[in-house]
Every structure is written in C-alpha cells, then in structure tokens.
Amino acid sequence: MLDRTFIKSVTTALSGGVVAQLVVLLASPVITRIYPPDIYGAFASLNAYASLLAPLLILSYSIILVLPNRKKDSFYILISAIIMSTLLSVVLFILYVFFSNYLNFGGSIIFLAWTVSIMQLYSYWFIREEKFSFRAKYLILQAIMVAILKVTIGYVYPNIDGLILSTLIPGFLFSLLIGVHIVSVHREGLDNGEK
C-alpha cells in the first residue's frame, strides 16, 4: 500500500505543474494574437537553446542536490552551483560581446539560460527538502506573471524583445526571492541546531 503522505506529496507536486500549464494554455490564444508567428517562433527557438545551455551552466549539479544526507552539505552544493552558473554566464556574455560577429547566438540566450538553470536548481532543492507545496505555488505564480507580462508588454513591444523581457523579469525576480527564502530558512535551521 502507498503511504498517504507520499500520495499527498505527489498530488501537490503534480497539481502545481498542471495548473501552471493550464495558465500557459489559457493565455496562449491571447498571446499568439499579440505577437506575429515569426516572432513567436523565434522566441521558441531561443527558449529551446536556453534550455539546452542551462544544464551546462550548472554542470548538472541540480541532480546531486538530493544526494547528501546533511542539509548543510546540500545547501553548499546549491550555493556553489548558483555561483558557478553566474560566473559561467558572465564569461559567456563577455565572449559574446567580444566575438558577437563570429558567434551564432544572441546574448539574451545566456540570460534565459541562467534563469532556467537557477530555477532548475531550486526545483531540485524543493524536492530534496520535500517542499512540494512551495514549489507548486511558485510554478503557478511564475506562469501567471509571465502570461500577464507577455500580454501587457506585448501591447507596447509586440516583438521578440517583449517576449524576452516578459520571461526574464519573472525569472530574475523569482530567482532572487526564492534565493533569499532558501538562505533565511537555512539560517533558521542552523540556529535551531540542524545539520
């Protein structure tokens, strides 16, 4: 028999992802009317490249976040991966600035990849800490915020820059807010004598 806690955790984790996808689905007809198909297709390509680059920025450290027995060790892996992702993103951006004539990608891919990599780290962190409810809530809030920004920014800038901005703003905002939350929870745990 399956444990009730396990079933509740799985249901919570799935519901967050499903509701977030429903928000995207419901907003799609409006968003696709605002942006021309070629712009929306170019943005989808940028997103795909950013999703491929994201695991390289963190060297897939997100997967090993769940392995350590002690929370402290896992926390240090998380912080190390965030620093590594940020430094690699800065190096890639500097390379892009100096060699943009020779490189076949835009600088915005780097920023998108950084936000994707950080959110991937946070997702694994919440799985490790069994914070399924918190993860579900931030997925839903991020989907709502991205949809609202795509619509509102799209009326002013119905181009690829509008789509990129509407994705980067929530990505940076949630990366910062969730990072502050994780650090504060970790400090409270240290104060309470957790390992």
Secondary-structure map:
Layout: H1 4-34, H2 37-57, H3 61-64, H4 71-99, H5 107-128, H6 132-156, H7 160-191
Helix pairs in contact: 1-6, 2-5, 4-5, 5-7, 6-7
Give the strand tally: 0
How would you spell out the order of helices and strands?
Answer: HHHHHHH
Helix share bin: over 70%
End-to-end separation in angstroms reads 32 Å
User: Unreliable stretches, pLDDT < 50, 5 or more residues?
Assistant: none
Main β-sheet, in a few words? none
Give me the Rg, rounded.
18 Å
Query: Helical segment tally?
Result: 7
Structural class: mainly alpha
Give the DSSP E fraction (strand runs of 2 or more residues): under 5%
Mean pLDDT across all amino acids = 86
Shape: globular
Descriptive notes:
The chain is mainly α and 195 residues long. Helix content is 84%, strand content 0%. The protein contains seven helices and no strands. It has helices at 4-34, 37-57, 61-64, 71-99, 107-128, 132-156, 160-191. Helix 4 (71-99) packs antiparallel against helix 5 (107-128) and helix 5 runs parallel beside helix 7 (160-191). The radius of gyration is 18 Å and the shape is globular. The model has no long low-confidence stretch (mean pLDDT 86).
What's this entry about, in short?
This protein is mainly α and 195 residues long.
List keywords for this structure.
single chain; mainly alpha; 195 residues; globular; 7 helices
